TrEMBL record:
Residues 1-65 form the DUF2007 domain. InterPro entries: DUF2007. Pfam families: DUF2007 (PF09413). It comes from the Bacteria. This is DUF2007 domain-containing protein.
Length: 86
């Protein structure tokens, strides 16, 4: 197992875990149960996504592609041009 990414928060971690699962990569969200103690634990490095060694490179590529993705031109709502509304 390799720790390949440190999400900023639990929601990002779970979203990326689901995205990797949709590509056939089993990812483990390490530190999920420690988030409740964030007032008493260090904030940084608490969460981490870990995958099997043989899938680490592909998982990193997918996360990089996700983080650098931009909305397609023309997909923005007319009331908010240039803004992606989820």
């Amino acid at each position: 197992m390799q720790r390949i990414y440190e999400p900023e928060n639990l929601m990002e971690g779970e979203l990326l875990q689901g995205m990797l699962a949709s590509e056939g990569i089993e990812a483990h969200l390490v530190g999920r149960d420690l988030v409740g103690g964030s007032g008493e634990l260090p904030i940084f490095g608490l969460l981490g996504l870990s995958v099997d060694n043989d899938q680490a490179d592909y998982a990193r590529e997918l996360i990089t592609a996700y983080n650098t993705a931009l909305p397609l031109s023309g997909d923005e709502p007319e009331s908010f041009p240039g803004t992606l509304v989820c």
